[in-house]
From TrEMBL:
GO molecular function: magnesium ion binding; pyruvate dehydrogenase (acetyl-transferring) activity
CDD domains: TPP_E1_EcPDC_like
Cofactor(s) the protein requires to work: thiamine diphosphate; Mg(2+)
Domain Transketolase N-terminal: 137-310
InterPro entries found in the cross-reference section: PDC_E1_N, PDH/Transketolase, PDH_E1, PDH_E1_M, THDP-binding, Transketo_C/PFOR_II, Transketolase-like_C_2, Transketolase_N
Keyword Oxidoreductase annotated: yes
Enzyme class: oxidoreductase
Catalytic activity: N(6)-[(R)-lipoyl]-L-lysyl-[protein] + pyruvate + H(+) = N(6)-[(R)-S(8)-acetyldihydrolipoyl]-L-lysyl-[protein] + CO2
Gene name of the encoded protein: aceE
Residues the entry annotates as binding Mg(2+): D243, N273, Q275
Protein name in UniProt: Pyruvate dehydrogenase E1 component
Organism this protein belongs to: Kocuria sediminis
One Pfam family matching this protein: PDH_E1_M
Phylogenetic classification of the source organism: Bacteria, Bacillati, Actinomycetota, Actinomycetes, Micrococcales
Region of interest called Disordered, as start-end residue ranges on this chain: 1-22
Biased segments, Polar residues type: 1-17
Length: 912
């Protein structure tokens, strides 16, 4: 019987059932064993499946088999022959292990000490090498090449292989984690495409994002294929993950998508070394069994690779099932301990649990018991699993490979709780590791300088190096590798932006609708529209984008096989294999992953695509900022549209929906260019510039993401002025409406939905108080700040070259009087430019939590509305002596500024 601590993850098919005829049961089992002996496991597998299917048809209750015994999924008689030269591969695998460890160790020289990880690659080397020698197709492969998501902490192994391949030099290995001080030779600590854009494809060290992005990469590959943009039928996505990493919500949160889309172009390889960073993953349980049940329940094909070939004979002799029983019941914490002890310890504490199992190893020495490998370190077992995964159709596959963290590094490292943090080798460790791997390095070379143990390369003409390079040549080139083969594309014509520049006439329209109109026109562009990838979580109707359904259609690789409830309506919900819209459901994390896959297609597939991810503003940077950071690392390009933006504009929804801070969060991401436009014509110029920025020919950083905040409040959209300041729109500020009367002067700055409040304040100041105010539309507080900081830094580092004036100061030159700045975000946002302008400056902001109320009431509560702008301007003018000191108080009384029911800025309605 399984122990009480892990019975919930074992199937227990006969638990709680009485065996009414034990002799008959034994006869059935003997008959089944005879079937296996005479016809093999493949026939036995079919008979069992047929019986289970028939049992269900006869209403015989058979529980779902969520877990299998703790043995390999692929029977020995079904294992394919290993096609490689295992001895040659073993030799250079030893070189890889040595060089990876030495590289990290050398970086711990006292004057450097930059850290690193030795044990992670040591445990995963075989899993990598089987793939690199026999499965992972490079970018020059006729089928287009595979995408491989490597484990982040195992990056030293990738560098060690690139060294043997001749892609990296010793000088570069010695620059590990020293990207600037040893530039241009520095190597990033983990897979970072932004740091090494010619080498890495996918950033994976932020745990959980790799598995999620791998799923959506596989989906996007199919999306490109089904839309007829690129044939991706011969491309496969591999994701190498840790068993501890699988506890991240993102790691498991999209498994159903892979199953529903039948993504048999996707394989997860979970390195089950049973350890997290600090200790066991499931010390009191069995993580492999748990993951098997979880993935199987989610609809995945599961392959377990738990034991090396040395176990095969023992299992074959296990006639009464005692060894399998002990394997099933042994806890992960004990399995970890066994590999940190000795063969004698394993004999006593594992095999010694039963007289039958103790007898199984009676003729084996302690050393032979110690050499019983786990499956993740056996080339034959891993090859069989990879081949089976590639041949399996209709489901994604997960391979659960049991290994040992720190494998081969010796007793100080193997399976120790602290092994993840260990980055130095003692003299004894180095010598023992060298002996274990048979590296031809002398004691004198190691002893001469503890932190200068030599790398080993047998030379380019060595047979193992020739073999290694030949394998990669046959598979289509080196991996990892990030090719630069972006094709030129035709950019949208002027026609795509005309409608937004016309304004809304006498009608009112929200900026969300202004953007959606532009998106529609972009999709219609003959030579460009097919490159747009709209990504919408389950809120298309909120954003007024249900009109896209009948024409663009929603992507579903299975088509639409049901009768739609709204099929008679003009805006019916329509799914299609060729659908354009990626609709991940209520799943912002998945939408962000889809955005990343589409936004890097220019590099991954050589097909530039422009993802447009539109989402509830609050659920963007607050919810998935780490994914956007990884997207920036992956050099993603595209548009992020934070719709229903603002803390007071989304009426009625309340605290968790009222966004007053996303632009501030976004400003911390250097790859994000944020705009807060007020009008459709501003959006048109920003979108046009964004597409040109990403895919134009200008010499600039093209790897940017444009983030626009748009609102659901309708107001009149003016036509574009004839002399509009386009440079000001794109750089962040332009004069929207100068004062129309003389008087004490002030400057009103506003962004987004606050611009109409500023225009109203301008009128009130003139009519009620004789004050002259200029109104400026600030399209980007963030870009103005970045420009200002850049100007300050230039002056700081080049004191003799004069001082560059920040753009905001240039624009406001000659604009006299105090500045009052307002937006529908917290005061931190307009405060970003305070230091760059000489004027007295006041920021009005929606500081604090949002709440459900009317727009007018909420804006009065936060004191960001037109009347608050008037009073704040009067107070600053009074302080300067330019208006009577009693005037601000009179204005407060006149406008009932302390009464939340007296606000008038804004209107009701506007779902989109």
């Amino acid at each position: 019987m399984p122990s009480s601590s892990n019975h919930h993850i074992l199937s227990g098919l006969t638990n709680n059932l009485k065996d009414s005829d034990t002799e008959e049961t034994r006869e059935w089992i003997e008959s089944f064993e005879g079937l296996i002996e005479t016809q093999g496991t493949e026939r036995a597998q079919y008979i069992m499946r047929a019986l289970l299917q028939h049992a269900g048809a006869k209403s015989v209750g058979v529980p779902m088999v969520t877990t299998t015994d703790y043995v390999n999924s692929i029977p020995v008689d079904q294992e394919p022959e290993f096609p490689g030269d295992e001895e040659v591969e073993r030799r250079y695998r030893a070189y890889l292990r040595w060089n990876a460890a030495v590289m990290v160790h050398r970086a711990q020289r006292p004057e450097i000490g930059v850290g690193g990880h030795i044990s992670s690659y040591a445990g995963v080397a075989t899993l990598y090498e089987v793939g690199l020698n026999h499965f992972f197709r490079g970018p020059e492969h006729p089928g287009g090449g595979d995408q491989v998501f490597w484990q982040g902490h195992s990056a030293p192994g990738n560098y060690a292989r690139a060294y043997l391949e001749g892609r990296l030099t010793e000088e570069q290995l010695d620059a590990f984690r020293q990207e600037k001080t040893k530039a241009p030779h520095g190597l990033s600590s983990y897979p970072h495409p932004r740091s090494m854009p010619d080498f890495w494809q996918f950033p994976t060290v932020s745990m959980g994002i790799g598995p999620l992005n791998a799923i959506y990469q596989a989906q996007f590959n199919r999306y490109l294929h089904n839309r007829g943009i690129k044939d991706t039928s011969d491309q496969h996505v591999w994701a190498f993950l840790g068993d501890g990493e699988m506890d991240e919500v993102e790691s498991r949160g999209a498994l159903q998508l892979a199953a529903n889309d039948k993504l048999d172009n996707l394989t997860f390889v979970v390195n089950c070394n049973l350890q997290r960073l600090d200790g066991p993953v499931r010390g009191n349980g069995k993580i492999v069994q748990e993951l098997e049940a979880f993935f199987r329940g989610a609809g995945w094909n599961v392959i377990k690779v738990l034991w090396g070939r040395e176990w095969d004979q023992l299992l074959a002799k296990d006639r009464d099932g005692e060894l399998v029983r002990i394997m099933n019941e042994t806890l992960d914490g004990d399995y970890q301990t066994y590999k940190a002890e000795s063969g004698g310890f394993i004999r006593d504490h594992f095999f010694g649990k039963s007289p039958a199992t103790k007898e199984l190893v009676a003729d084996m020495s302690d050393d032979e018991i110690w050499e019983l490998k786990r499956g993740a370190h056996d080339y034959h077992k891993v090859y069989a699993a990879y081949k089976a995964a590639m041949e399996h159709k209709g489901q994604p596959t997960v391979i659960l490979a049991q290994g040992v963290k720190g494998y081969g590094l010796g007793s100080h490292f193997e399976a120790r709780n602290a092994t993840h943090q260990m980055k130095k080798l003692t003299l004894e460790d180095l010598k023992a590791f060298r002996d274990h791997l048979r590296i031809p390095v002398s004691d004198e070379q190691i002893e001469d300088d503890l932190y200068n143990a030599p790398y080993y390369h047998p030379g380019p003409d060595a047979p193992e190096i020739k073999y290694l390079l030949e394998r990669r040549k046959e598979l289509g080139g080196f991996v990892p590798d990030r090719p630069h083969r972006q094709q030129e594309i035709t950019l949208p014509t002027d026609a795509a932006y005309k409608s937004a520049k016309k304004g809304s006439g006498k009608q009112m329209a929200a900026t969300t609708m202004a953007f959606v109109r532009i998106l529609k026109d972009l999709l219609r562009e003959k030579d460009f529209g097919h490159r747009i990838v709209p990504i919408i979580p389950d809120e298309a109707r909120t954003f007024g984008m249900d009109s896209f359904f009948p024409t663009a259609k929603i992507y579903n690789p299975n088509g639409q096989n049901y009768l739609s409830v709204d099929r008679e309506l003009m805006l019916a919900y329509k799914e299609s294999v060729q659908g354009v819209i990626l609709h991940p459901g209520i799943n912002e994390a998945g939408a962000s992953a889809a955005f990343t896959a589409a936004g890097t297609s220019y590099a991954t597939h050589g097909e530039p695509m422009v993802p447009v991810y539109i989402y509830y503003s609050m659920f963007g940077f607050q919810r998935t900022a780490d994914e956007f950071w990884a997207a920036a690392d992956q050099l993603t390009r595209g548009f992020l549209i934070g719709a229903t933006a603002g803390r007071t504009t989304l009426t009625g929804e309340g605290l968790q929906h009222a966004d007053g801070h996303s632009p501030i969060l976004a400003s911390t991401n250097p790859a994000v260019v944020h705009y807060d436009p007020a009008y459709g014509y501003e959006i048109a110029h920003i979108v046009r510039r964004g597409i040109e920025h990403m895919y134009g020919t200008r010499d600039e950083d093209h790897d940017v993401m444009y983030y626009l905040t748009v609102y659901n409040e309708p107001y009149q959209q003016p036509a574009e002025p004839e002399d509009v300041d386009v440079e000001g729109i794109l750089k962040g500020i332009y004069l929207l409406k100068p004062a129309e009367k003389d008087g004490p002067r002030t400057q009103l700055l506003a962004s987004g939905v606050a611009v109409p409040w500023a225009l109203e304040a301008q009128r009130l100041l003139a009519e009620d108080w004789g004050v002259s105010a200029d109104v400026w539309s600030v399209t980007s507080w963030v870009e103005l700040r970045r420009d200002g900081l850049a100007a300050e830094k230039e002056s700081f580092l080049n004191p003799g070259d004069g001082t560059r004036t920040p753009f905001v100061a240039q624009q406001l030159a000659g604009a006299t009087g105090p500045i009052v700045a307002s937006s529908d975000f917290s005061s931190d946002l307009p405060d970003m430019i305070r230091q760059f302008v000489p004027n007295d400056f006041a920021s009005l902001g929606t500081d604090g939590f949002g709440f459900a109320d009317t727009r007018q009431g909420a804006r009065r509560f936060f004191h960001v509305d037109s009347h608050s702008m008037v009073v704040r301007a009067l107070e600053m003018l009074a302080k300067r002596g330019e208006v009577d000191w009693r005037t601000p108080g009179e204005a407060i009384e006149k406008y009932r500024l302390h009464d939340v029911n007296a606000g008038t800025s804004g209107n009701a309605g506007g779902d989109a």
